[in-house]
Specification:
By secondary structure, the chain is of the alpha+beta class. The chain has 3 domains: about 5-25 and about 240-330, Archaeosine Trna-guanine Transglycosylase, Chain: A, domain 4; about 35-95 and about 200-235, 2-Layer Sandwich (Pseudouridine synthase), CATH 3.30.2350; about 100-195, Alpha-Beta Plaits, CATH 3.30.70. Helix content is about 25%, strand content about 30%. It is built from 11 helices and 17 strands. The protein has helices at about 5-10, 30-35, 50-60, 90-95, 115-125, 170-185, 210-220, 225-230, 250-255, 295-300, 325-330, and strands at about 10-15, 40-45, 65-70, 80-85, 100-110, 125-130, 145-155, 160-165, 185-195, 200, 230-235, 245, 260, 265-270, 275-280, 285-295, 305-315. Strands 2, 3, 4, 5, 6, 7, 8, 9, 10 and 11 form a 10-stranded mixed β-sheet that branches.
Length: about 325
């Protein structure tokens, strides 16, 4: 995953500013504070529910704070399940709303030529109608979901291995059932694994055992390195968003819900459009808030006043960066 330092090379400088003594670079946070801003790219095993796995993580880490998961997986489904700790729980909706990628086994209840199956997969690529299954936790109303990719990887008899990339909220079991109905033979899902959730991929995922061993290593030997590897700073969740980097003097007002003013901007991404979702960052690379831009990149650079972004979700604690009046008193 790309770091904030890597992304800085692509930022436009509006006003040169240097970071002050407040806050921490994400990877350099004291460990307990680091955990309070942590995300675990967990490889959920088959068997337990997502809720049960989340409770296991809380128990392993002996974590006293708030914890949650992003994007429920059925008990029989394995794969990527992002777990969020402390302040990172404020990003749950953003992470859960990302597109998902799965590999699963479609079992057809009758014989179908490969050409017919491929034709059916083409029919189910794009916007589709779905009604959530009876056991789902959401209201069973008909809704549209988008299937971005639906690929046949291999076949053996009536068993077919498929890879699909879908919009969040798409039910893969229902998708497989509907493909069988379209083909006139019926179908069921025999295996399913989530291989990606937004920017979180199975290639970088960790197991419950990895997490346990990393925690014991810190608890018994005081070694933090492995725990800092399996728990990621929450900033990784916004790596895909355009950035607006603010001066230290602007941070406190944003954490209290004030809009970001143009005068508080130090650097910004080149590709921001009016109305874009943006990650508002400190000079040290900390995520302050998620905002909605009210200007394009060009307008932010050229303007001397006005609101650059409205705040949609404050992530940073309020007391990390003191307000301007308090700094003047300290001086």
């Amino acid at each position: 995953m790309r770091s904030f330092a890597d992304a800085q090379e692509e930022l436009i400088v509006k006003s040169i500013a240097e970071p002050g003594p407040y806050g921490y670079r994400p990877r350099e946070r004291p460990l307990l504070f680091y955990l309070d801003h942590g995300i675990i790219n967990l490889d959920k095993p088959k068997g337990p529910t997502s809720h049960t796995v989340t409770k296991l993580v809380k128990r392993i880490l002996e974590y006293p704070g708030k914890i949650g998961h992003c994007g429920t997986l059925d008990p029989k489904v394995s794969g990527v399940l992002p777990i969020v700790l402390g302040n990172a729980t404020k990003l749950s909706r953003l992470i859960a709303g990302s597109d998902k990628e799965y590999v699963g086994v479609l079992y057809l209840h009758g014989d179908v030529d490969e050409s017919e199956l491929r034709e059916a997969l083409d029919k189910f690529t794009g916007p589709i109608f779905q009604r959530p299954p009876v056991k789902s936790a959401v209201k069973r109303t008909l809704r549209v979901r988008r299937v971005y990719e639906l690929e046949l990887l291999e076949s053996e008899g009536r068993f077919h291995l498929l890879r699909t990339r879908v919009e969040s909220g798409t039910y893969i079991r229902k998708l497989f059932f509907d493909i069988g109905e379209y083909l006139g033979v019926g179908a069921s899902m025999r295996e399913l694994r989530r291989i990606r959730s937004g920017i979180f991929s199975e290639r970088e995922s960790v197991t419950l055992q990895d997490l346990y061993e990393a925690y014991v290593r810190w608890k018994e030997r005081g070694e933090e390195d492995r725990l800092r590897e399996v728990v990621l700073p929450l900033e990784v969740a916004v790596a895909h968003l355009p950035k607006v980097v603010v001066k230290d003097s602007a941070v406190a007002s944003i954490t209290h819900g004030a809009s970001l003013k143009v005068k508080g901007v130090s650097m910004l991404s080149k590709d921001i459009k009016k109305g874009s979702l943006v990650a508002i960052m400190t000079l040290k690379g900390e995520l302050v808030a998620i905002g909605r831009s009210t200007m394009s990149s060009e307008d932010m650079v050229s303007s001397e006043s006005g609101v650059a972004a409205d705040i949609e979700r404050v992530i940073m604690p309020r007391d990390l960066y003191p307000p301007m009046w308090k700094r003047r008193e300290e001086a």
